[in-house]
Amino acid sequence: MHQARLPFQLLLVMAMLTPVASGCGGTKGNNLPKVTGSVNVDGKPADGAVLLFYPEGGRAATATATADASGTFTIVTNMEPGIALGRYKVTASWPDPSQRATAEDLQRGVSKDAADLLGGRYVAPDRTPLTAEVTSTTKQLPPFELSTK
Question: What CATH number belongs to 8-137?
């Protein structure tokens, strides 16, 4: 079975965004609404799943999120918690934890392309079935329920 690979650059971005997504960012803020959510795979929390939020019409910056051990995430735009109002196509990948690059690997510039445990089925913005809408009252998105099957 062919498994999709995540490029080193995506893993590097994930590593840089993890502290921000977990609430360890700066205090400046970007004045965007703070929105959280959760992602499950086959009914279980998807620790380490990476979501990218592509604005429909391209009017805003792409936002990102990385799920923690409980499957929850905070959406981040330009390294700050928050996301612009609007509709989004959402892509998702779930790097195999046994193949993820460690912080030491990243510091040494060692590339490890982790297999996507979702088989690449949610990674193309033009084919993903996942969507989200952020309004002025959105605080939490409905859960994303993904499948490996």
Answer: 2.60.40
